[in-house]
Amino acid sequence: MTTLHTARAAKTAAAVTTAPGHAGRGAAARVARGFAGGATRLVLLAVALFWLLPTVGLLLSSLRGPLDIQSSGWWTVFTKPAQLTLHNYTDLLSNTTITHSFTNSLLITVPATLLVVVVGSLAGYVFAWVEFPGRDWMFLLVVGLLVVPLQIALVPITSLFGKLGIFGSLISVILFHVAFGLPFAIFLLRNFFAGIPRELLEAARLDGAGELWLFLRVVVPLGGPATASLGIFPFLWVWNDMLVVLIFADPGSAPLTVALQQQTRQFGTNIDVLSSGAFLSVIIPLVVFFAFQRQFVNGVMAGALK
Fold first, then answer.
1. Are residues 150 and 270 in the same domain?
2. Which residue in 21, 116, 184, 228 is deepest, having the highest Cβ count within 10 Å?
3. In this structure, is residue 4 part of a structural domain?
4. Domain that holds residue 47
5. Is residue 249 part of a domain?
6. Burial zone of 290 (CB within 10 Å; 0-12 exposed, 13-18 middle, 19+ buried)
7. Which sign does the torsion angle of CA 154, 156, 162, 166 carry?
8. 30 Cβ neighbours under 8 A, 6+ residues apart
C-alpha cells in the first residue's frame, strides 16, 4: 500500500509540475502563431497595396484637370481634393474616336471569348470521351500548338485573309484570336472533362442520352467552374492585344488599345483623354475578373484537385 500511495503521489506531483509548463508552452505557441500570422497578413497587405498603386494613381490622374496633371503628381489630391473632377470623363464620352474604339473592343473581345469557350468545350469533350481513330495523336498536335508563337503566322494568315476578302475587318481579328486561343482552351477543358466519373456518363447513356444531350445536360453543368475560369483568360488576352489589331484591323475597326496608342502622339495636349481612356481600358478587365472571381477560384481549385 505504501509503495502504491507513493507511486500515485509521485505521478500526481509530476502532473502538477508539468501541467503549467505545457500550458505555458501552448500559450507561447499561440502567441507566436498570432504574431507570425499578423506579420504574414501585413506583408500580403503591403504587396497588395504596392500592386494596386499604379491603378490608384491612374484613377486619381483621370479625375484631375490637364493643368494639375502637368504641374504636380497625383498624390497631391490628398492635400487638395478640390482637384478632383469628372470633366475628363465627360470629354472622353464626347470623343467619337474613343467611344467608337471602345465599341470595337467589345465587338472583338466578346465574340472571340464566346467562340473560344464554346468551341473549346465541344472539342475538349470530344477528346475526353468520344472514341475515334487518331484521337490521341490529334490531341498531341493540339498540345504542340501551344508553343507556336503567333508572330510566325502573321504573314501567311494575312495572305489568306486577303484572298478571302476579310482582311481589315473585325471578323479577321476575331478569327485570328479564336484560332490561337483554342489550343489552350482545348487542353484545359479536356483535362478537366476527363476527370468526370465514367460511371455517371455511362448511366446517362444507358438511359438513352445522346452525345449532344450528354454534353449539354451533364458535362457543361459539371464543368461550369472550369469554363468560367477559362473565359477570363481569352477575354484579358484579346482586350489588351494591340499587335494583332495593328496588322489585321483597318482604322475604322481599331479597338481602344490602338486609339490610345494613337493619342500618345499628342501627349502634351490630350493627357486628360489619355488618363481617363487608359483607366477605362483597365477597369473593364478588373470588373470582369472580380465578377467571375468565385468561378475562377473554383475552377483553378478543381483543376488542382483533379
1. yes
2. 116
3. no
4. 21-83
5. yes
6. exposed
7. negative
8. none
Q: Provide the residue type at 205 as one letter.
A: R
Strand stretches in 124-249, DSSP E? none
pTM of the model: 0.76
Q: Does residue 6 form part of some domain? A: no
Q: Which of 255, 97, 260 is nearest to 177 (CA)?
A: 255
Cα distance between the two ends of the chain? 63
Average pLDDT over residues 104-115: 93
Domains held by the chain: number: 2
Is residue 146 one of the residues assigned to a domain? yes
C-alpha cell at 164: 478571302
Angle at CA of residue 297, ends 295 and 298, nearest 5°? 60
Residue type, 215: F
Query: Are 127 and 186 spatial neighbours (Cβ–Cβ below 8 Å)?
Result: yes
Let me know how long the chain is.
306
pLDDT single digits (tens) 143-197: 888 888 888 888 899 999 999 989 988 999 999 999 999 999 999 888 888 888 8
Q: Are residues 79 and 208 in the same domain?
A: no
- Rounded CA-CA distance 58/80 in Å is 17
Three cell numbers at 105? 473592343
